[in-house]
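Let us practice reading a record.
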Amino acid sequence: KTMNAKFPDILKIRHKLYERDVEVLSPKATGLEIGILSKKPRVINTTDLIADPDDEQSLVRLMVMANEFDLPGIPVTTGCWRKTQDSKGMHLLDNIVNAYKQAYNNLKVHTKGDHIPDFPTPEKMEAAKIYGQKGYGMGDVGDNKDSKGSDLIVEETLKKDDPRPLWFTAWGGANTLAQALHKVKSSRTPEELKTF
């Protein structure tokens, strides 16, 4: 039996997010708020893979719940227990995404039904794998230190056709976010910076 058959009431409550009754949530909601509330959140999730097993375990859980949000990027970064990042971290992320690809058709079985969002395609999950900052802390933040991860944060934040907020989780160090903010601050006028 699918999860839908086993837990119909839980799924109805859980997926109320995707058929929101905005009047219940906020009687004074604006059109923009309604548009934002009715869509999946966007999340960029950094990880200092290899530092310890918690990120590996958490990424498996993230993959199982990946239909609940849009995940444009999973930057592999450094952290307090991983002072430099190399191909070992990306290799571990490759293994986790490969496992996701193998489980994809089975995961989709659990999204059949009204208002249950689909899982991202294996190709989309593959495209989310990128490097963030490979050096540790603020020593890897500054001019000419952009990474694919920091560039993605800026790019996703500036999307004019997507009014949803961009959520950033730092399972490792946050210097990839710091580099994105450094780039924005150093490449814009004070007036442009206010609108970022």
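A brief commentary: Strands lie at 42-46, 70-76, 129-131, 166-170.
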